[in-house]
Design brief:
This protein is of the alpha+beta class. It is built from three helices and nine strands, in the order βαββαββαββββ.
Length: about 180
């Protein structure tokens, strides 16, 4: 990547393999009849900050801020699935931040990225969630969550989003351990 090349970036929490397996199994069971596009297992994550199209030259400074914010929060973060919810374009599993530390991480990271000049906060509060389905219009689906066990997250990552005809493909560019 060259400094002025544009790339789509976002920072997120990486979900553990057992959580990814459980979510993929739930998607297969519950969403197989949905008309939308099921989010592939490899794309499941909890977004902390979506930066959108940025110059590739921003990558290292964004990664540095992600590492610093991640190091400042004790690991693991404990999240718990609480419900399925639909918005205008996505179906998601909403998560409860049991300790408040994931929310603190998101706030700290977003503030750092704002100071860096690469991010502007949304008008609403950060909502921890995993997008599991994308669609053109809400389907009005109602599901319970199959597993309400806690999810213990220990890593964050800087992702690149590659847009394509069959949906986005996410590439992990850098990772950061929570708690340093």
């Amino acid at each position: 990547m060259v400094g002025d090349e544009r790339i789509r970036l976002f920072c997120a929490l990486q979900l553990p393999d057992d959580t990814l397996d459980a979510l993929a199994a739930w998607q297969e069971r519950e969403l197989r009849s949905a008309e939308g596009r099921v989010v592939p297992r490899g794309n499941l994550h909890v977004t902390l900050a979506f930066l959108g199209s940025r110059p590739a030259g921003d990558l290292e400074s964004v990664a540095d801020e992600l590492r610093a914010a991640s190091a400042a929060v004790p690991a693991p973060l404990e999240l718990r699935p609480v419900r399925y919810r639909e918005t205008r374009n996505v179906g998601m599993i909403v998560l409860e931040d049991l300790s408040g530390r994931a929310t603190a991480l998101a706030d700290d990271l977003q503030e750092r990225l704002e100071r860096l000049g690469v991010y502007r906060r949304e008008g609403r509060s950060w909502l921890p969630h995993v997008t599991v389905l994308r669609f053109r219009r809400p389907e009005g689906l109602r599901f319970g969550v199959a597993n309400t066990c806690s999810i213990h997250v220990v890593r964050s990552a800087l992702y690149r989003s590659h847009l394509g005809r069959d949906g986005a493909r996410y590439e992990v560019l850098k990772t950061a351990a929570l708690g340093g």
